[in-house]
């Protein structure tokens, strides 16, 4: 009934809006008038159903009934018996044909969106299941992370939950990961330790310069490090970024620790971004945006720290 009502009101509205553009408006309302007559028995059924079946009045249903009778009254006031043209039939078929087609496409889109939303909710429930989380974490390979004072670290250094991100300068997904981590650490500054490392260093000298810029800011101008990281994450271009923080195009020399480069090479990390929880990579179904729930759920958090 909802689909039929939407099609009826939309079609009548379009025909009404087109009346000033038509040579014979009385002829254009001939068929909509007959259509409005057929809607009246439904209004009586609706009143009966509300009064005697559900015994409760529905404000929206009553409003629909009022609109249906109002439309009938308007059509009746303009209706001229026998005043009918072929053009009015074409207008009626054309308008309602367009409305039905548009509504079918919209309905399909709404159904797909609803199904995707349902799947997202089911996936979210799965992610929040401690048994599934434990199983996926246990299957992940453990890495020797080799944390030390040379690492770029944010948050609480003594936190038992350490999140490590491996990023690169020209990776758009890396910028998104950093944005999500900035939001996460802002919400839970006392619960996590965030370590930033840099990958793809073997591909071009620019990768080393990019890492050196951040190591320079972190160790020598720490008050600028976080704003610089935020600007980079929000896609500030390289030239503007370097000018803002007074960084030379060549970059500072030999700041990137050789131990971190060896860590990447020894573990054969060839892709970015990568996200690690303590010594294991974040399982594939999970994203950084899921960490907020993980951090406030003691049962899930204990799986990482045990």
Short structural description:
With 306 residues, the chain is α+β, with helices and mostly antiparallel strands. The protein has helices at residues 2-18, 25-28, 30-53, 59-78, 86-127, 130-139, 172-187, 205-220, 222-233, 238-244, 258-267, 291-296, 298-305, and strands at residues 152-155, 162-167, 193-198, 274-277, 280-281.
Q: Main β-sheet, in a few words?
A: 5 strands, mixed
What value does the Rg take, in angstroms? 32 Å
What's the overall average pLDDT, rounded? Answer: 81
Terminal CA distance reads 56 Å
Helical residue percent? 55-70%
Based on CA inertia axes, which overall geometry fits?
A: elongated
Question: Characteristics of this structure?
Answer:
63% helix; 306 residues; Glutaredoxin
Report what the structure shows.
- This protein is α+β, with helices and mostly antiparallel strands and 306 residues long.
- The protein has two domains: 115 residues, no CATH class; 178 residues, 3-Layer(aba) Sandwich (Glutaredoxin).
- Helices cover 63% and strands 7% of the residues.
- Strands 1-3-2-4-5 form a five-stranded mixed sheet.
- Strand 2, helix 7 and strand 3 form a beta-alpha-beta unit.
- The longest helix has 42 residues.
- The mean pLDDT is 81.
